[in-house]
Amino acid sequence: MNASELNVRVARKHAEALDICTFELVHADGHALPAFSAGSHIDVHLPNGLTRQYSLCNDPQESHRYLIGVLRDPSSRGGSQAMHELVQEGSLLRISAPKNHFPLAHAAARSVLIAGGIGVTPILCMAERLALSAAPFEMHYCTRSRDRTAFAGRIAQSAFASQVQFHFDDGDAAQKLSLPAAIGTPQQGVHLYVCGPKGFMDWVLEAARTAGWPADQLHYEFFSAEIAASDADAEFQVKLASSGRIVTVPKDCTVVQALAAAGVEVATSCEQGVCGTCLTRVLEGEPDHKDMYLSPEEQAANDQFTPCCSRSRSPMLVLDL
User: Could you say which cofactors this protein requires (predicted)?
Assistant: First the structure.
C-alpha cells in the first residue's frame, strides 16, 4: 500500500434503491479521513482484484466517513457485482485518497446540474454544497423509475428540494426532461454539470455544444466507456525517453499490455480511458485518442494520452517513461 492509500472498514451497507447500495466507509484505525470537495471520487480496490472509481456523496465537512453509492450493473465487468456480493458490513477495503477531476466552479453565477441514474452521487454532493453557500442552481434528476431513484428521501428532506426536478422514464410525458428547456442558451457565468451513463452524458453534452455552450462552462466525468476497436488500428512502436528502449505495440494489444509484457509497469485503474490514472506525457508523435478523460482541447494538444486504450496515428510515440 502506498502512502496515499487508506485502509477502511464498511461501517454500513444499505439498500438505497432497487439495485443500488450505499456503503459507509470509516478509517480502519478510527482516524479522521482526508478532506474532500464536492465532485471527488475514490479508487476502491475490490476483493476480486479489480479497482473501480466511486464518487463521494456525503457532506464534505464530514471527516469521520465517506459514503459511496454503487449500482449493480448487469453489464458490469465485475466491479459492481463484487461490491454488491463480496463486500459486506465489517469488510476491510483499501482505497485511494480522494481525487477531484469534476470540481465545482465556485465563481459561477448559476449552476445547472443534470444527473442520470447513479450519476446522481457527485451531483447530489454538488447540490448540497451550492445550497450551503446559497449559490443559485437547479438540478434535474433522471431515472428509469421511482423505485430506482437513490437518495429521493434525502433530497425531499433537504432545504433545496424545490430546486430539484425528478424525471422518470416510465412516467407521463409532462414530467420527462425537456433538454432544450433545461440547458437553455449559454450565458456568461452559467455552468452546466452532467454525470450518468455514457449515452445519457453524450446526449446532454451534444445538445449543449450544439446550443453553443463554451467548453469551459461544461463539466462532466465519465466512469465507464466502450473502447471501440477500429479497422484503422495498426501496429506501432513506443519509445521510452529515459532509456531509448523501443517496444512494439501489436494491433490487438494496448500500450499498457505491450509495456507490461516488456517488463515496464504503468499504473492503471479503469482500463477504459475514463479515470486518468495511467495518463502519460507524449514527447513526440501523434496519439490516436480513444479516452473519455481528456477534454477535446487537451486531446488536440497531443502532449499526453491514456495508454490503457489510446493508440498512435504516427509510426512511433516517444513517451516520458
Answer: FMN
Rounded to the nearest 10°, the torsion over CA 45, 51, 56, 62 is 20
| C-alpha triplet 186, 192, 197: angle, nearest 5° | 130
- Return the percent helix, strand and coil in the chain, to nearest 5: 20, 30, 50
- Grid look-up 443534470 returns 114
Domains and CATH numbers, the chain: 5-96 (2.40.30.10), 110-220 (3.40.50.80), 236-319 (3.10.20.30)
DSSP 214: -
- Judged against a pLDDT cut of 90, whether residue 200 lies above it is answered with yes
Q: What mean pLDDT comes out for the span 259-265?
A: 92
* Of 260, 271, 316, the residue nearest 293 (C-alpha): 271
The residues, ordered by sequence, that sit 6+ positions from 277 with a Cβ below 8 Å of its Cβ are 43, 267, 268, 269, 270
How, if at all, do strands 92-96 and 5-17 pair?
antiparallel
Q: What is the mean pLDDT of the segment spanning 231-254? A: 91
Question: Can you name the residues that pair with 317 across neighbouring β-strands?
Answer: 238
Could you give the residue ranges of the DSSP H alpha helices within 135-230? 152-156, 179-183, 198-210
Q: In terms of Cα–Cα distance, which of 232, 214, 234, 221 is closest to 270?
A: 221
Report whether pLDDT(44) > 70: yes
Q: Residue 134: which residues within 8 A CB-CB, separation 6 or more?
A: none
Cα separations (Å) of 271 from 42, 77, 94, 127, 297? Answer: 16, 11, 19, 30, 22
Three-state SS at 304: strand
Q: What number of CA atoms fall less than 13 Å from residue 215's CA on the CB side?
A: 5
Can you say how many angstroms the Cα of residue 161 is from the centroid of all Cα atoms in its chain?
A: 25
Say how many CA atoms lie within 13 Å of 194 toward its Cβ. 21
